[in-house]
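Anyone up for a design puzzle?
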């Protein structure tokens, strides 16, 4: 009775392991672009607050704010009044902070689909090479290890809660600031006294806006409540840092981008390049940072790395595009006049044109099918496009933008290829003989196509129909999305949203037809194929399911969930060598995926290799004690080996955790086994 069937394996929880040994090797000095020089032994704490608008903090002038901790940090340090992100998207923006480069140079261009390559040199790598203890504590799966941000961190803690009910309404699994801060404090208290670099990422101001008590009731706008909650939690972190190393820690706090909150017809972030999402909070405090200074010159996220290096007495790698902001402390001019910005989200997720922009303290030029120019001093909310009356300024900024785009590549159009895995991982994976059909997606950025600002109606429909707290009945939501799809038939996200609603209503045939229409319309996405594959599996059509999962895997080899479903389908179809390759592939991506170990355990059983089976089942159970199939399989192995005590524990865990309906036939058998062992 080895358990190999059933949906349990296919839908087993997506778990991220705590990888204590996350460091993936250091770069040669050459790759690091020269030596930074010997750094002063100061500690670094970088706090990135996701989705936090600067103008919702007290220190940035918001009267309704309750942000005493950040306000005090700003008073005791330096605040950049005019700070901008390079992109309104989480992974690319963080990649800019930690490499000092614009997204078109570091290559992380969107949320998912891109990995920060191991050839990049990050702040963590630079200080780790000089002996700093390094650790990162991450608030959401969008920055998980797979995306390459763990480079240079001895500890990269990205363990998220399992996708249970509380995570169901969330776009990305996340954990609250309290937990992130607790873990960071735990790490701080385990430190020996070597200088450290600690990165703490909190995700709470991102959707959904659900602050915990008492912040849920205290604020008219729950978004403000999330920020107040984060502020309180950061107070605990700063107090511990001060206790650990009094006066010897440089603290940097930045948002990765803002939130539109309805401005320009956008509710969240990612589609547009207005200041609602590009303007960020940016403050520094600690040794070398003067107190009470407010800098008016523009500061960019790419300036973080060179500024911190400067404060440590070192120099940034030569190819860094940012600049040290320290001269601005005393009012000297810094070369931050032009900030580059881009978003490929409208292109890749919505089928519209990408946007690029260049921003100065006075102007913003947005390159779109219908270009825009805003006078940020006169019109900070960017309501009046003044391009018609300021042709000379627009022309000058357009040229600046062209030169920023041309840093890597050609002038008017740029070809972008998705990079779903690190190149090094990729070549290792090739040795598994599993990569023959893999093709990355290529996008051509021409600045042409559907202008996102002409599609705010679609954005509005998606917001109304899809938001977790939508009161609209499901059939009405589907109808709204169908209407949107008629207006915008090449928008990939509408297929996912509408298909999702249809599936939730049990209209599987309609969902399948919809996804196939998407493919006919030229939408090439792994996600569409994996949805189709799931539906085939539901019909019991394994052959078609396998074919579709294979297409999904070719388009996105980093989608371990589809890979795991594919491997299981292979296994159930008797294609054991294929299944083994696929399970090994999942683990080779660096993802500690418990179901893959369970699968390899089953394969080992087939080969009568009991020690290997035991080892794999043990790993699966250790990674996820709730993976009941692995619990049962491990129990059976223990029983075979005569380890009755251990077998009993596994069977008991299985009975305690297995959903009774799903395992109605198996549970009585396991109970019988237990009786025999007692
Ligand atoms: Zn973000």
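Challenge accepted. My sequence:
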């Amino acid at each position: 009775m080895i358990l190999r069937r059933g949906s349990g394996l296919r839908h087993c929880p997506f778990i991220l392991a705590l990888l204590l040994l996350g460091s993936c090797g250091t770069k040669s000095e050459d790759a690091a672009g020269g030596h930074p020089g010997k750094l002063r032994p100061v500690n670094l704490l970088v706090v990135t607050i996701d989705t936090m608008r600067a103008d919702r903090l007290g220190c940035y002038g918001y009267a309704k704010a309750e942000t005493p901790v950040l306000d005090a940090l700003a008073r005791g340090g330096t605040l950049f009044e005019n700070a901008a992100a390079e992109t309104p998207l989480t992974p690319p923006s963080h990649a800019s902070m930690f490499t000092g480069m614009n997204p078109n140079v570091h290559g992380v261009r969107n949320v998912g689909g891109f990995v920060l390559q191991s050839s990049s040199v990050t702040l963590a790598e630079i200080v780790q090479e000089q002996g700093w203890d390094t650790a990162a504590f991450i608030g959401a799966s969008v920055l998980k290890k797979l995306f390459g941000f763990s480079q240079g961190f001895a500890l990269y803690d990205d363990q998220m809660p399992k996708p249970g009910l509380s995570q169901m309404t969330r776009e990305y699994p996340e954990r609250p600031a309290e937990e992130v801060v607790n873990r960071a404090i735990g790490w701080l208290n385990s430190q020996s006294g070597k200088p450290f670099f600690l990165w703490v990422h909190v995700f709470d101001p991102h959707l959904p806006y659900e602050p915990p008590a008492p912040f849920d009731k205290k604020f008219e706008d729950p978004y403000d409540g999330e920020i107040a909650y984060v502020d309180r939690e950061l107070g605990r972190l700063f107090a511990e840092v001060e206790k650990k190393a009094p006066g010897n820690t440089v603290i940097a706090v930045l948002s990765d981008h803002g939130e539109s909150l309805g401005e320009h017809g956008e509710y969240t972030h990612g589609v547009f390049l207005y200041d609602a999402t590009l303007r960020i909070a940016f403050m520094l405090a600690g040794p070398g940072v003067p107190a009470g200074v407010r800098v008016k010159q523009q500061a960019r996220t790419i300036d973080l790395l060179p500024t911190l290096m400067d404060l440590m007495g070192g120099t940034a790698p030569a190819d860094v595009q940012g600049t040290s902001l320290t001269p601005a402390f005393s009012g000297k001019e810094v070369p931050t006049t032009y900030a580059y910005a881009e978003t490929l989200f409208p292109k890749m997720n919505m089928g519209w044109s990408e946007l690029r922009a260049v921003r100065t303290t006075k102007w913003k030029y947005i390159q779109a099918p219908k270009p825009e120019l805003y006078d940020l001093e006169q019109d900070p909310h960017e309501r009046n496009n003044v391009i018609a009356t300021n042709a000379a300024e627009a022309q000058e900024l357009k040229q600046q933008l062209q030169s920023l785009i041309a840093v890597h590549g050609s002038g008017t159009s740029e070809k972008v290829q998705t990079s779903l895995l690190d190149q090094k991982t990729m070549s290792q994976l090739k040795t598994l003989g599993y990569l023959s059909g893999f093709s990355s997606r290529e996008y051509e950025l021409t600045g042409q196509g559907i202008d996102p600002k002409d599609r705010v109606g679609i954005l509005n429909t998606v917001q109304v129909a899809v938001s977790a707290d939508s009161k609209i009945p499901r059939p009405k939501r589907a109808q709204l999305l169908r209407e949107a799809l008629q207006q915008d038939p090449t928008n990939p996200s509408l297929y996912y949203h509408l298909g999702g609603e249809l599936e939730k209503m049990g209209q599987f045939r309609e969902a399948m037809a919809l996804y196939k229409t998407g493919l006919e319309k030229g939408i090439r996405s792994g996600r569409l194929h994996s949805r189709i594959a799931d539906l085939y599996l539901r019909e019991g059509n394994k052959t078609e399911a396998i074919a579709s999962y294979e297409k999904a895997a070719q388009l996105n080899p980093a989608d371990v969930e589809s890979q795991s479903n594919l491997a299981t389908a292979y296994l159930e179809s008797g294609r054991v060598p294929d299944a083994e390759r696929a399970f090994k592939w999942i683990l080779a991506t660096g993802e500690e995926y418990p179901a893959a170990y369970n699968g390899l355990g089953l394969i080992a059983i087939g080969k009568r290799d009991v020690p290997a089976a035991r080892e794999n089942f043990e790993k699966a159970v250790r990674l996820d004690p709730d993976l009941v199939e692995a619990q049962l399989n491990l129990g059976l192995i223990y029983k075979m080996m005569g380890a009755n005590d251990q077998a009993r524990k596994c069977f008991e865990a299985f009975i305690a955790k297995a959903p009774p309906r799903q395992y109605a036939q198996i549970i009585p058998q396991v109970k019988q086994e237990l009786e025999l062992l007692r």
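A detail worth pointing out: The chain has 28 helices and 15 strands.
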